[in-house]
Design goal:
The complex is a heterodimer of chains A (243) and B (218).
Chain A: H1 9-40, H2 55-82, H3 85-117, H4 125-146, H5 150-178, H6 198-242
Helix pairs in contact in A: 1-6, 2-3, 2-5, 2-6, 3-4, 3-6, 4-5
Chain B: H1 2-14, H2 18-37, H3 41-62, H4 66-73, H5 76-82, H6 87-116, H7 123-148, H8 156-166, H9 168-182, H10 188-217
Classes of the chains: A mainly alpha (243), B mainly alpha (218).
């Protein structure tokens, strides 16, 4: 029993269909519990008032925005090295989810920033690198859409993903150099000095877990759609050949 | 390799305006800026390094789709791919030719356009140095974008969308070096970072470009 068995589209579809209801259900429960807990059962911050509670959407979305790209990177590498089609399709399926997560993070950040920082947008390193990440997603998705041949598209986007990762990291450090930050430090990290208070971190963990499962469910679902779309394409092509 | 370089340069100079077009675009962008932001000389002096860098970047971008498209259409790219010269070398030479035909004239023209934008006197040297260090990176990264989109019918717009995010680090350090130079501050750190990025992409990017080109030539 190795993980590569799931590179078989049929096997992947079978097992993902078994896993998906669990993922949908648990992510729904976790997100609802986390958000309700976070919105109604945590105290207001003494400086930020109730606006602090947007953190329960902002942080998990930002987390998934970055990890979706990371997942695309891993899937692209698997495609380049082992040439499993499911892997390329999973990368394709994750990109739109990632770009939406990036948008959610940017939008919730702007909504929170307006009352707190007095501005919807500032050219802060974190904000800027998220905007750059958004542009990378945009380029990646457009390249997928632009190329007809699925294998060529998978190859080219995989290499774009690898190169883009290097440049995204470079940009992250470049913008640090270019402007001073307004954004607060990490909300959660292993050295606990600058973390958010416990009252907020527990529902935040729940929300983050919910978003991770939600992302997985979406990616499984969309990968399944891509596999079926490709099958239909192949069947239609065969039918045309026979006719 | 020299033969290929000379051929590409000849084509760039002769084949109908591709050579001067980038320069003309750089000029017109620079001329349009005062119309857009107003003619106050202190404002222009403050934004001049950034505007000139952005103008150079856009002119470079404009000429990228010619980098491989013509060779792709008439089939000479296939010949080059089957030639004994490795594809990595071919793409490096093509990027070099693009830099000599587009980047270098931009570097030389930038001080003249700096006069139009009232660039402070201290800024000229560092503007030229930063452009000289940064434009090769623009050409090499651009060659990767050109290789990605070479097989597409209307790849021009997509090319810009793909390449511009990759230009972010180069632009940040290049414009920062030029800006600090114009304000009379120390320029070592951004210049070193810029040189590092240029050296890194010149060394590594041709491999990615050649890999992409091989996929497109399949």
């Amino acid at each position: 029993m190795s993980i590569w068995e799931y590179a078989n589209p049929r096997k992947f579809l079978q097992s993902s269909e078994r896993v998906m209801p669990v993922l949908w259900l648990s992510s729904g429960v976790l997100i609802s519990v986390g958000l309700i807990w976070g919105f109604f059962f945590t105290p207001d911050d003494y400086r930020q008032g109730s606006t602090v509670k947007i953190i329960f959407l902002h942080v998990p979305a930002a987390l998934m925005a970055i990890n979706a790209w990371f997942m695309m990177l891993v899937a692209s590498l698997i495609w380049v090295v082992r040439r499993h089609h499911v892997s390329a399709l999973a990368a394709k399926a994750a990109a739109p989810v990632g770009i939406v997560m990036t948008l959610i993070a940017l939008a919730t950040g702007a909504i929170w920033g307006q009352p707190m920082w007095g501005t919807w947008w500032a050219w802060d390193p974190r904000l800027t690198s998220f905007l750059v990440l958004f542009l990378f997603y945009l380029g990646y998705i457009s390249l997928w859409e632009a190329i007809d041949n699925p294998d060529t598209a998978a190859d080219l986007t995989a290499i774009l993903c690898l190169v883009g990762t290097v440049f995204a990291v470079l940009s992250r450090y470049a913008v640090n150099f270019w402007n001073q930050g307004l954004h607060q430090g990490a909300s959660l990290s292993l050295d606990e000095k600058e973390n958010v208070a416990d009252a907020f971190s527990n529902p935040l963990y729940v929300c983050m877990a919910g978003f991770v499962l939600f992302f997985l469910a979406l990616v499984f679902y969309r990968t399944g759609t891509e596999i079926r779309a490709r099958r239909i394409k192949a069947l239609l092509a065969r039918q045309r050949q026979e006719a | 390799m020299m033969a290929l370089l000379i051929r590409d340069l000849r084509l760039a100079v002769r084949a109908g305006g591709g050579f001067g077009l980038g320069l003309a675009f750089f000029l017109i962008v620079t001329v349009l800026v005062p119309f857009a932001v107003g003619p106050q000389s202190d404002l222009l002096a403050r934004i001049a390094p950034g505007v000139l860098w952005l103008g150079a970047l856009l002119s470079c971008l404009l000429s990228l789709d010619r980098l491989l498209a013509l060779d792709w259409e008439d089939g000479s790219l296939d010949l080059l791919a089957t030639a004994p010269l490795p594809l990595e070398a071919v793409i490096s030479i093509k990027a070099l030719a693009h830099w000599i035909a587009t980047g270098l004239p931009l570097v030389l023209a930038a001080p003249l356009l700096g006069v139009l934008l009232n660039l402070p006197l201290d800024g000229y040297l560092w503007l030229v140095v930063s452009l000289l260090l940064g434009t090769p990176a623009l050409s090499v990264i651009g060659a990767f974008g050109a290789a990605l989109t070479v097989g597409l019918k209307r790849g021009g717009l997509l090319l810009s969308l793909l390449v511009m995010p990759l230009y972010v680090p180069t632009l940040i350090f290049g414009a920062e070096a030029a800006r600090r130079g114009a304000m009379g501050m120390g320029v070592e750190t951004p210049l070193l970072m810029l040189a590092g990025i240029s050296a890194g992409v010149i060394a590594l990017m041709p491999f990615a470009s050649a890999a992409v080109l091989r996929i497109n030539l399949r």
